[in-house]
Amino acid sequence: MPARRHGLDELDLRLLRLVAERPRSGLLEIARLLGVARGTVQARLDRMTADGVITDFGPNLSPAALGHPVQAFTTLEVEQASREHISATLASIPELLEAYIVTGPGDVWCRIAGRDHEHIQQVIDEMLKIPGVRRSSTVITLSAVVPHRVQPLAEIVIERPAS
């Protein structure tokens, strides 16, 4: 039996690959493809969900297909004492796809989507109106070289021994 790292083994990895490749397949079909019982698939999915390995079963949506093809990364410089209020207010902006408090230059990095460049500017202006946000710096994305992914990370957890 292979050594388990971070609660994953080879069957978990195969299960994760199948769920990613065939997100609309049912548990019975996945179990058949893996050659295990349906209960085994359910138990492993439940464990990986409880462990926080699987964070979502929902569909991945395309901002472009939703009419927001322009994406940008905006760095906000903020007053540290206002971070909690700023975070809550940022969460209310639907065009904000994700935001992170970071170290280094800037305090909060945001990925936003807009209908066009003018709309991106409107979203940035909305962010700048939040009390405690001092300034922003923005870059517009041209294309995705490597889109968001996590599956390769799951694979190295199994394939590469921890040092």
Question: Notable features of this structure?
Answer:
18% strand; Alpha-Beta Plaits; four-stranded antiparallel sheet; 6 helices; 4 strands; elongated; Arc Repressor Mutant, subunit A; disordered N terminus
Strand content: 15-25%
Secondary structure: number of strands: 4
What is the oligomer described by this structure?
single chain
Tally of alpha and pi helices: 6
State the CATH class of the largest domain. Answer: Alpha Beta
Quick one: biggest sheet? 4 strands, antiparallel
Distance between the termini: 20 Å
What's the structural domain tally? 2
Structural class: alpha+beta
Any low-confidence stretches, pLDDT <50, length ≥5? Answer: 1-5
**CATH architecture term of the largest domain:** 2-Layer Sandwich
Rounded mean pLDDT is 91
Read across the widest sheet, the strand sequence of neighbours is: 2-3-1-4
Structure description:
The chain has 163 residues and is of the alpha+beta class. The protein has two domains: 10-59, Arc Repressor Mutant, subunit A; 70-140, 2-Layer Sandwich (Alpha-Beta Plaits), CATH 3.30.70. 38% of the residues lie in helices and 18% in strands. The chain has six helices and four strands, in the order αααβαββαβα. The protein has helices at residues 10-21, 27-34, 38-50, 83-90, 117-128, 151-159, and strands spanning 70-78, 96-101, 108-114, 133-140. Strands 2-3-1-4 form a four-stranded antiparallel sheet. The longest helix has 13 residues, at 38-50. It is elongated and about 55 Å long.
